[in-house]
């Protein structure tokens, strides 16, 4: 049994951590909930019992002998507090982008690169990839291993839950006519080709994350990848159109077969029956769903895919918990 801390327990992903730990019957000995000072003294319930939320600070961390600290409290809190949890012996599994590109921090999707977990000994931190990257990875890994990937083009349609509590509120209130607080323009009835901040080169940080994280997770530092990420008025689950050029010839039936046999992936594709994954249908599911699998006739060896994943489950909380489960299994 393990002592588990959740940092950012009151947030969207924090609450999902609690739900999934419970659902999967994770071996929790003691549970500790942390958030900002604002939430200190409030409670959240886990397995029918109320747990006090504490302010995240060294005094509240040091004597708890925490084994796993699941973080989803934003980049600044991760930068400040992840090293402190690690210093007191915890393995931090962090959802923010603060540590992802640190060469001494593994970036892990457990079905894809479990071998990287062992690098955690360097800093005591493991990074959970960006939600839109995670859901593409099991599929890209399978294609890369079998055919070799020449180039990836990602176009995303991302849910507001990825922007936290205030993102959801902007959509809900916006439907009733209120002005947005989180997004620069109304999200209700709109599509914003803008997630995270803009960079000098014209890309957004979200797009850069997809590009760089894909290369790191697949161990392909020179892979050609590009991305356009958009926020859409959907509550939960990200959808992605992914165009992939492969290095070798393929039969489309073989790609169906390959993905049917890929861990963490459900092929949901029968256009005659109007079967294709949608955000509403995939919300609450653990697997990533793929459909609309078809040849791209405009290039040699191209394939188009429509990939949908629950960004708060597999894209965040579930992936982090699966990393901890994998570590526990590797220990045994
Ligand atoms: P709080 O509710 O006390 O503000 P979301 O991304 O869904 O909005 O959630 C963000 C989470 O991160 C919340 O639990 C929030 O706590 C927490 N948080 C924000 N800033 C800090 C901080 N400086 N230290 C610890 N937790 C923080």
UniProtKB/TrEMBL annotation:
InterPro entries referenced in this protein's UniProt entry, alphabetically: Asp_semialdehyde_DH, Asp_semialdehyde_DH_beta, NAD(P)-bd_dom_sf, Semialdehyde_DH_NAD-bd, Semialdhyde_DH_dimer_dom
Organism of provenance: Clostridium neonatale
Residues engaged in binding NADP(+): 10-13, 38-39, 161-162, 311
Binding site for substrate: 158, 231
Protein name: Aspartate-semialdehyde dehydrogenase
SUPFAM superfamilies assigned: Glyceraldehyde-3-phosphate dehydrogenase-like, C-terminal domain, NAD(P)-binding Rossmann-fold domains
Recorded catalytic activity of this chain's protein: L-aspartate 4-semialdehyde + phosphate + NADP(+) = 4-phospho-L-aspartate + NADPH + H(+)
Record has Transcription regulation as a keyword: no
Listed transmembrane segments: none
Family: Belongs to the aspartate-semialdehyde dehydrogenase family.
Active-site residue list: 131, 238
Organism lineage: Bacteria, Bacillati, Bacillota, Clostridia, Eubacteriales
Coiled-coil region(s): none
Function description: Catalyzes the NADPH-dependent formation of L-aspartate-semialdehyde (L-ASA) by the reductive dephosphorylation of L-aspartyl-4-phosphate.
Pfam families for this protein: Semialdhyde_dh (PF01118), Semialdhyde_dhC (PF02774)
Pathway connected to this protein: Amino-acid biosynthesis; L-lysine biosynthesis via DAP pathway; (S)-tetrahydrodipicolinate from L-aspartate: step 2/4; Amino-acid biosynthesis; L-methionine biosynthesis via de novo pathway; L-homoserine from L-aspartate: step 2/3; Amino-acid biosynthesis; L-threonine biosynthesis; L-threonine from L-aspartate: step 2/5
Residue positions binding phosphate: 100
EC number: 1.2.1.11
HAMAP family: ASADH
GO biological process, one term: threonine biosynthetic process
UniProt domain Semialdehyde dehydrogenase NAD-binding: residue ranges: 3-120
């Amino acid at each position: 049994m393990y002592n588990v801390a959740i940092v950012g327990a009151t947030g969207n992903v924090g609450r999902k951590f609690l739900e999934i730990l419970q659902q999967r019957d994770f071996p929790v000995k003691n549970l500790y909930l942390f958030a900002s000072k604002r939430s200190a003294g409030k409670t959240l319930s886990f397995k029918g019992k109320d747990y006090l939320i504490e302010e995240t600070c060294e005094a509240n961390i040091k004597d708890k002998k925490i084994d796993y600290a699941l973080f989803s409290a934003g980049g600044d809190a991760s930068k400040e507090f992840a090293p402190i949890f690690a210093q007191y012996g915890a393995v931090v599994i962090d959802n923010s982008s603060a540590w992802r590109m640190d060469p001494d921090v593994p970036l892990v999707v457990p079905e894809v690169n479990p071998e990287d977990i062992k690098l955690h000994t360097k800093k005591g931190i493991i990074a959970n990839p960006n939600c839109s990257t995670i859901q593409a990875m099991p599929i890209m890994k399978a294609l890369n291993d079998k055919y070799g990937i020449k180039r990836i083009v990602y176009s995303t349609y991302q849910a507001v839950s990825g922007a936290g509590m205030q993102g959801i509120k902007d959509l809900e209130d916006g439907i009733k006519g209120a002005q947005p607080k989180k997004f620069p323009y109304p999200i209700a009835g709109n599509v914003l080709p803008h997630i995270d901040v803009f960079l000098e080169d014209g890309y957004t940080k979200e797009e850069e994350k997809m590009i760089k994280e894909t290369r790191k997770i697949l161990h392909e530092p020179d892979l050609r990848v590009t991305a356009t990420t958009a926020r859409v008025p959907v509550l939960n689950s990200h959808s992605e159109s992914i165009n992939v050029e492969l290095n070798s010839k393929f039969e489309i039936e073989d790609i169906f077969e390959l993905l049917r046999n890929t861990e963490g992936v459900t092929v949901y594709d029968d256009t005659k029956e109007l079967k294709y994954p949608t955000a509403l249908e995939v919300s609450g599911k653990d697997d990533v769903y793929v459909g609309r699998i078809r040849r791209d006739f405009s290039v040699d060896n191209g394939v188009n895919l429509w990939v949908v994943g629950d960004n708060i489950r597999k894209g965040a909380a579930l992936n982090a918990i699966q990393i901890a489960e994998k570590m526990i299994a590797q220990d045994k």
